[in-house]
Amino acid sequence: MESANKTDFSFTGEFAVTEEMQRAFDQEGYFIVRSLLGAEEMQALGSAIDRDEGIRAHAFDIGDGEGRSSKLSLWSHPGSDVTGMLARCEKVAGTMEKVLGGEVYHYHTKLMMKEARTGGSHVWHQDYGYWYKNGCLFPDMGSVFIAIDKTDKENGCLQVIRGSHKLGRIEHIMVGGQTGADVARIEEAKKVLELVYVELDPGDALFFHANVLHKSDRNDSDRRRWVFIISYNRASNNPFKKHHHPCYTPLHKVPNSAILECKNIDDITGKDFMDPSTDETIKPEKK
Q: Which end of the chain, N or C, is less surrounded by CB atoms within 10 Å?
């Protein structure tokens, strides 16, 4: 069942959330902003992550239950490096505030690394399927999925079920090393809702609601598929219990120019990287 609502937009210097974008987020659960990050900003981001030390030193493997795995680094606080400026800037955090309808704070950021020929799949799930278990009462949450590499069907791009956020939270169980949504319910949803392959160029971004069903296939191509995913929670949705992600922590937003102005490339102080042994929603791959 296809929708007439537009979900594909382009970044301009005077970027702001339009009525069309808000409608797409409310009705379809997501929208894409092409070239959200420019070439210089992508180069700055690459300088912060293309090193074996720093952020990547905190990576661990997540299995897909089929003999493959992907690497993941996850941190709770944005910090003051280039990646922190990205998470705090107006065109990312400010946009999420507008579409979610109120102040947000940084819930966590992920660097997802799906390597060529070996990267594993990620099962169908809703982010709120497991954030619910963290004590977040409402699904007033969302993520910004930013392509570092070109992502397409060949290297395991993200897939979403359009409008699936309206299904409400679906029951989730452990599937391999991941938390996945009820398979039978997903099959029924696919009969009435459109499956979309989210193919992105570097710097393109997908803004999506926490209840949107999404997955990605394994990477059988000769190209890696690295992505950045920044997640936010409404300040009014402060979790009722402490857990491995932050409760409400004020987010100090910065102008978009801060990404290129930031000279802090490798200082990851204060990010608070996740220890996978403390997270009940994933099971790290054992070596």
A: C
